[in-house]
Amino acid sequence: MNKNKRLISGNEAIAEAAIMAGCRFYAGYPITPQNQIPEYMSWRMPEVNGVFLQAESELAAINMVFGASLTGTRAMTSSSSPGISLKQEGISYMAGCELPGVIVNIQRGGPGLGNIQGSQADYFQATKGGGHGDYRMPVLAPSTIPEAAELMMAAFDYADFYRTPVLLLSDGILGQMMEAVEFKEYKPIKKLVKKDWILDGARNRVPRSIFSLMTAPGALEKHNWKLLEKFSKMEKEVLSETYLAEDAEILVCAYGIMGRIGKAAIQMARKEGIKAGLFRPITLWPFDSKTASLYGSKAKKVLVVEQNLGQMVEDIKLAVEDSKKVFFHGRPGGGVASKEDLFEKIKELIK
Amino acid sequence: MEANLIICGSGGQGVLLAGTVLCHAAIKENKNVTWLPSYGAEKRGGLSYCAVVISTEPILSPLISRPPVIIALDNIGFDFYEHTLADKGLIILNTTLIGRETKRKDAEVLKVPITQIARDLGNVRIANMVALGVYLGKSGVIMLESVIAALDSVASSKYKDLILINRQALEKGFEIGVQNKKRG
Q1: Tens of pLDDT, residues A90-102
Q2: CB–CB contact A7 B20 (8 Å)
Q3: Staple B127 to which of A25, A84, B15, B118, CB 3.0 to 4.6 Å?
Q4: H-helix or E-strand containing B27?
Q5: What is the rounded average pLDDT for all residues in chain A?
Q6: Residue B77's domain is classified under what CATH number?
Q7: Which stretch of DSSP H or E encloses residue A126?
Q8: Residues of A numbered 224-243 whose beta carbons fall under 8 angstroms of chain B's beta carbons: which are they?
Q9: Which of A171, A288, A294 has the alpha carbon at shortest distance from A241?
Q10: Taking CB atoms and an 8 Å cutoff, what residues of chain A touch B39?
Q11: Is residue B184 part of a domain?
Q12: Which of A30, A2, A1, A34 has the alpha carbon at shortest distance from A18?
């Protein structure tokens, strides 16, 4: 038996991966289904001389992350859908101030307070600018717990490299379920440069300032053009997985938990001789339109599967450019399609 | 190989723990596992459920919509999940707490007075391990030894003295499971 394998929930794996990646500041406010993250951090952070703070609100938590990030500390917060809505102002400020930080959204059903079941209803919010202002933010969507751990480590690297907030977008199922994880030693995926912008007391140096208010004529426009340059670089960081997509007559497009369930349905279909394949974006922004377009154009039909009323399907339609062959199957409000449901849907479409 | 099962009952019966112990054991045998709990406003006495998938292949779906095996510890769980059983599936039924007959006539039903056995062993709270033992004996999916070894990794230092009685519960259940292996 491999002694390094740990049976661990998605939430706890995300927390441990953050610690391994050098995160030393966590602030959050309780909400199901992500409570294991702050619970884990509450005892784990002190072990590594980090700071754990249960904030008085989500707003306070994201602004504490803002503050910790200013000092050059790797910092994060986590919440679930309604709580993430509350954090949007802080995220926008971080984007404006170019501050690194990682935000974890273990999505639950919405809108409003919704329910506590797993959901993918925050795709729009995550990828199309949940907060105000013209900004972009990398969004990473794991579909297994080992992948969640891996992407959580990568999130801190992207955040520091591009000086940007990064969102890990997962859901209640992946957060609550357990799987075996073999934690790999943290190795930065980007070359990390010294943070020469942090506010750590201006002893023996010229004072620095970081702010997002730019009222001088033209100053904000100039800043936005500068941000665009960065966003363009970030756009190259696309990640996606394909599975039996090469000869696929029906291309299933799904991310996160639905990505793996979709894969299971594809295996069922292949056993019956149906040429089904998978496109699973791992970064939701930037979105791997190129790969979606390549296999989507080849396929006769494209089936987008989400735990919502249809959000990523819009990006797939843009990529495939023939929206007549794009079909959608979704379950909102905490509902989830089984592999059997998806297999039926595939059979229906291939007829 | 792939094994799919659900364990259901009510909060406090150790439904989630039984699944967790099984997963630890499966990992000891180098198998892949997924464990998916019901979660919500559950409390002691409310519906409790976990779905466990064990496989030598990577596991894609952690959801089990038609479980081939249901371990039912009480009516609260059983009433809710009985209809989901796969065709000709197996029900391990705790007859101490489930008085009614099964509705699924196609099912293979293994009736065991699980809670009574736990009581006789001296602790009603080990009913979950009796049930798990029955499943192990009946299915042969995971070795009893692996599950006994897993008890040690699951029990915190505070509860180490409870390992023995949990082991006895597993063994007792296992015996019953093995006896019923050929039938059905």
Answers
A1: 999 999 999 999 9
A2: yes
A3: B118
A4: helix B15-28
A5: 97
A6: 3.40.920.10
A7: helix A123-127
A8: none
A9: A288
A10: 32-33, 116, 172, 176
A11: no
A12: A34
Reference B33, options A56, A139, A1; nearest CA is A1
Number of domains in chain B: 1
Q: Which helix (H) or strand (E) holds A176?
A: helix A172-176
- Whether residue B79 lies inside any domain: the answer is yes
The pLDDT averaged over each successive group of 10 residues in chain A (351 residues) is 84 98 98 97 98 98 98 98 98 98 98 95 96 97 98 98 98 98 96 94 94 95 98 98 98 98 98 98 98 97 98 97 94 95 97 86
Q: Which helix (H) or strand (E) holds A150?
A: helix A145-162
Q: Do A1 and B29 touch (CB under 8 A)?
A: yes
Q: Write the CA distances from A299 to A29, A148, A269, A327, B140, integer angstroms.
A: 45, 29, 15, 12, 43
Please give, rounded to a whole number of angstroms, the shortest distance from the CA of B171 to a CA of chain A: 23
Report the C-alpha gap between B36 and A9 in whole angstroms. 9
Residue at B156 is within a domain: yes
* A2 with B30: Cβ contact below 8 A: yes
| Inter-residue contact B20 to B78 (CB < 8 Å) | no
**How close B136 comes to chain A (CA, Å)?**
20
In a domain, B28, yes or no: yes
From residue A252, alpha-carbon distances to A43, A280, A295 in Å are 41, 8, 10
Helix H or strand E encompassing B37: strand B32-37
Give the residue among A182, A323, A330 at the shortest CA–CA distance from A255: A330
Using the 8-state DSSP alphabet, how is residue A108 labeled? B
Range of the domain at B129: 2-179
Peptide bond before residue B68 is cis, with ω within 30 degrees of 0: no
Domains and CATH numbers, chain A: 5-234 (3.40.50.970), 240-350 (3.40.50.920)
